[in-house]
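Researcher: Next entry in the queue.
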Amino acid sequence: MKILLVDDHKLVRAGLVLVLQQMEAGIELLEAGTGREAIELAGNTPDIDLILMDLDLPEGSGLEALSAINAKNPDLSVVILSAMEDQAMVSRAMELGARGFIPKSASGDVMLNSLRLVLSGGICLPPGYGDASRGDNSELPNLTQRQLEVLRFMAQGNSNKEIARELGISENTVRVHISAIISALDATNRTEAAYSAMRLGLIPRATLSMA
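Model: Structure for this entry, 211 residues:
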């Protein structure tokens, strides 16, 4: 596995390296200290599996780097690791293509489990994200209970085959449900649909306690 770590503070990167090395044996870590370096490394290293990036960067902010990287390689998972965790910032990062947002206050175990969730196809949001927007349910899409169950598994990164096995239905039925879910949430893919569902409070956020 190859991860690009982007933070302008060398001491912070050194600490994160120690944490990330626990993910699996033989992990390869690349480092960048600016937004420009992150964009260049992402473009010149096609086998990167994941980027863990701060938002407060010199030579191009984390959001600018995220947008540029996602434009060239939308399949590359980028997770934001930042002390700036207000809801507007989280929303903006997710809209620009981030697959997760981890507060810098998170423990090492939470960070590792969150990254594993993203690598398995899920998305991860901070605790409390979306709570303030759940009061008005008048515009919530009308999804069936079965579709909500499928949504929960989608957000956890489960494949169609795994969802079918868990719910005791056929893979074709799962595909039909997912198509209906994506349409109802006005999304373009599974990740966007799961993110929208979490933001609207339709399903629990795929996140972990900071305890």
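Model: The two ends are 28 Å apart (CA to CA).
Researcher: Noted, moving on.
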